[in-house]
Amino acid sequence: xxxxxxxxxxxxxxxxxxxxxxxxxxxxxxxxxxxxxxxxxxxxxxxxxxxxxxxxxxxxxxxxxxxxxxxxxxxxxxxxxxxxxxxxxxxxxxxxxxxxxxxxxxxxxxxxxxxxxxxxxxxxxxxxxxxxxxxxxxxxxxxxxxxxxxxxxxxxxxxxxxxxxxxxxxxxxxxxxxxxxxxxxxxxxxxxxxxxxxxxxxxxxxxxxxxxxxxxxxxxxxxxxxxxxxxxxxxxxxxxxxxxxxxxxxxxxxxxxxxxxxxxxxxxxxxxxxxxxxxxxxxxxxxxxxxxxxxxxxxxxxxxxxxxxxxxxxxxxxxxxxxxxxxxxxxxxxxxxxxxxxxxxxxxxxxxxxxxxxxxxxxxxxxxxxxxxxxxxxxxxxxxxxxxxxxxxxxxxxxxxxxxxxxxxxxxxxxxxxxxxxxxxxxxxxxxxxxxxxxxxxxxxxxxxxxxxxxxxxxxxxxxxx
Length: 466
What we know:
Blueprint: E1 2-10, H1 20-36, E2 40-45, H2 55-60, H3 63-71, E3 76-77, H4 81-85, H5 89-93, E4 102-104, E5 108-110, E6 119-120, E7 122-126, E8 132-139, H6 143-148, E9 151-153, H7 156-167, E10 173-179, H8 182-191, E11 197-200, E12 206-213, E13 216-221, E14 227-236, E15 241-251, H9 259-276, E16 279-283, H10 296-309, E17 313-317, E18 328-331, H11 332-338, E19 345-351, H12 352-362, H13 365-368, E20 385-388, E21 391-396, E22 402-409, E23 412-413, E24 419-425, H14 435-438, E25 443-445, H15 451-465
Parallel strand pairs: 1-2, 2-3, 3-4, 4-6, 8-10, 10-11, 11-13, 17-24
Antiparallel strand pairs: 1-14, 5-9, 7-8, 12-13, 14-15, 16-18, 17-20, 19-24, 19-25, 21-22, 22-23
Helix pairs in contact: 10-15
């Protein structure tokens, strides 16, 4: 006898709820088809379901996302970095308290107390005809963030080896739910032949019909759940082995929306208005925002950041603020809309020469107009860099290109070898945007506060400092 076993999955929704009612329509149909054929199926999420860019997630600290997963009858999820490092310790510790599904994350552990009751390192389920399936889950090891929030993430390979010892001999099939990214998934596939399937995420890669690396099937559904994935396995009970593995992804954006899910999201939005609608300050005139120039509000936010972190100096890009504040009551919802990024303050230690190079790079047209995607940035362009406690003198070449003439700190030129504590957005500690910051050996992150929390404090002071 041959048994077909199905796994339907989503990954990296990032609270893009516009697609969610269609995701539910697709999942309901697929599960019904499996049930009618008397075939086993499980519904799985691979992490980053929540993203505090959305007001619903912000207002509920992710609890609304868990409710939507419950309502959609999910069976298993693993943890993404947006679940793990954008929530304060207590919010994450209790995120899944009401979950009707199993949370599998083999490399996450709490370092302040016992692990939360919802956290499992692996799970074994059984198909209708007795095939035993083991699940391992892994999340990306952003330990500089996790440690400040009271968590630790083990190296993926250590966790895999530990869980494989538990599962081998007790299972027929092993699936890895991986929020590590495509490169890590491929490396794991090459190293661990006991893993039959890796369902991936994190790097937002789309594998329309899967990819086979050695003997392991890899699959992933891109981002925002425009695609929902399916893994179909065939087990031969006569030969007692897995004889076929297939992966598919389906674009669900054209499907009808599940009416009940739509109504639930509408209700959530109404509750958000009450939660985030509290007044911070009333302003008589608009507060203007301009991505390409220094405005009073971005200047004051940068100064607030220096004061709050006790840094020597600071810099923030004007593109962090997306829109003007209209005259009238300014609410937390306004702040969230105008500064939606899950971005933390970070102090880096740079020599005068390194700081000068950072300032020069940040004032080039190429940098200012760069359309940044990822690293927590949810804006359009980086925008002009604005400085606090630094006097940056610039001039223009004949071709109109701005350049840095001199930079002063405390009325004196930067000293080439002296170390300066610079506070900025943590987005610049990643990648190659500003290499001197990314390469800084010492980085002091400030968590769980986002830049918008400092923007609230800046606005509260606004009426007193105009």
